[in-house]
Amino acid sequence: MQKPNIPSFIPPRRTLMGPGPSDVPQRILDAMARPTIGHLDPAFVDMMEQMKALLRYAFQTENALTMPVSAPGSAGMEMCVVNLVEPGDKVIVCRNGVFGGRMLENVKRTGGVPVVVDDAWGAPVDTVKVEEAFAANPDARVLAFVHAETSTGARSDAQALAAIAHKYGALAIVDAVTSLAGIPLMVDEWELDAVYSGSQKCLSCTPGLSPVTFSERAIARLKARKTPVQSWFLDLNLVLGYWGSAGRRTYHHTAPVNPLYGLHEALVMLAEEGIENSWARHAHNHEMLRDGFEVLGLKFVVDQHYRLPQLNTVYIPAGVDDAAARTRLLNEFNLEIGAGLGDLAGKVWRFGLMGHASRTENIDYCLSSLKQVL
Amino acid sequence: MQKPNIPSFIPPRRTLMGPGPSDVPQRILDAMARPTIGHLDPAFVDMMEQMKALLRYAFQTENALTMPVSAPGSAGMEMCVVNLVEPGDKVIVCRNGVFGGRMLENVKRTGGVPVVVDDAWGAPVDTVKVEEAFAANPDARVLAFVHAETSTGARSDAQALAAIAHKYGALAIVDAVTSLAGIPLMVDEWELDAVYSGSQKCLSCTPGLSPVTFSERAIARLKARKTPVQSWFLDLNLVLGYWGSAGRRTYHHTAPVNPLYGLHEALVMLAEEGIENSWARHAHNHEMLRDGFEVLGLKFVVDQHYRLPQLNTVYIPAGVDDAAARTRLLNEFNLEIGAGLGDLAGKVWRFGLMGHASRTENIDYCLSSLKQVL
After folding, report:
1. All domains in chain B, ordered by first residue
2. Is A307 annotated as a binding residue?
3. pLDDT tens, B94-144?
4. Cβ–Cβ of B256/A39 closer than 8 Å?
5. What parts of the sequence cross the membrane (chains A, B) (predicted)?
């Protein structure tokens, strides 16, 4: 067979202001290029222990079971669902965007019996409707919702939703892919049970890892299962043997060593900044971008009370060609912004101000580039 | 919550001669540190198309469906099983080491009905037993086996095994985690149907990605399924929309951009060397190591006819403390070798000569270090 004649891939240098990945600081890229060591090396085990402490800080939790899944956020979602939902379990799933719909799909494939609470795309999850759904289905065992909907830019009240679930003895599975480090996410204070996130949003690491954390209630549910977890790769009982305790670590899968160096560095940088400062920076920079958008006449999809500072969704102005404008931004300005997803495809643009991309210079550059394209 | 005071992680520089990860060349590490771009960027899409061509060369196949799974080899295994096995399907699973046992576990969790063919650890899969298993179970729909058992270092006859499966109308799922690029693996010539591998073995990339390839027969089986695939993340029907055709790419999950840069570079390096040269290098270097082991009086677990050149398993000499010797190698010589797994734990050592680790200087260093420790 003839060998392909393909050169090394040299990517262009972009400014990433879409829904993720966000701009990755050189410091994190450099960390990823450090020498690979074995996934059972004592030095690597020490790094994993630090990683767990750093993730607990990011999640604001004391949960023992806090770790990165060796795969993207979609796998983190699937880990939460397949471990905490058994065939026949009733699950109330809130759908106010693409990712609520994806949770629903995961619940179905796990054999759960979903009860769907729908809200408009761009609106938060309605706590009244969720309360009604539980009243009509008091045997529901799990509530699944998205804290920060990446497809719309809407924030839901995770604390209130988890409180409703607990009133009915249900667990709360929470998608925090876009919220972690960008807006307050208080896993312990809000009593969230299973939370997954992604490395490539407000942590500004490269994509491919999914931080997760599980409460004691979630672990009790896991231990009380009557059926095996359908996924071998995502079975928490097995993953625990590897990430669980430094003393008695057993081989499960080969951890993605260098990407974990990157995530470790991203979390060290978060701790250096202080998570409250990170939240404040995201909030402040959103206001700058919003003011600029108002000058340009762009209208937000999400009401200001529920708007995510790190993901700004605006309607595409009438008469503007969606794809052509985004292509110009990419080709002439090396600026990536996000297209609409699902129901909002072709109607909106999504501007991420996540992590390292949430900076004054990015906002200025974005606004000036946009002005020339509109 | 108090913020953790944890510095950047600076790994030690090791020589990796265990069962993987293997030594990663600086050129691949440098590739991983290039600027992150979006997973839907046209430049990234071009890179993905190149990646598919490079992987086809590595697998020696024309299979259209050839791509890297965004997770480690364990997830590649699970992808093959959950897509090609439906509840109630009879599956003949060959177990001659840890990874055959893991395939069995995956088949069970997918609702398949396993028929296990056991062989001794260190022996290849016995084709006569497999033929007998099919004769007794002509309705079996899948044969699952490991081409190169990482836990023992034994090579099985993938071509002969696949031919038996096809005689009975069954598909062949093949674990090629340790074989890819280290010994001949002819996916088309041998008519293998679903093959998964890992980035961190003879490709010398960092761990975390699993190259896979599927034949037209496998795709036909997938399309004829009566039940949905139980995993959302690993559902080939969905993954195909993303990796399938450059023209009409749809968002599935966020691809691990920078790790894919690394795999791309590893595959470019393989093509530069030429895969036949890579196989020859692995074979030749094995002989050097074997000669050195003979001088040291170390005995191989696997008969020379079935021995993998890239994974050399030897019995620990009588009177030598397994853990203490490996700890000395690591601490004094920065040399990682592999412990025994499963039935062979405490009895053997595994020496990897994989990819970039398959070099004269590594062999010399390994033999001289070992001499001082024994």
Report:
1. 15-21+275-373 (3.90.1150.10), 26-271 (3.40.640.10)
2. no
3. 999 999 999 999 999 999 999 999 999 999 999 999 999 999 999 999 999
4. no
5. none
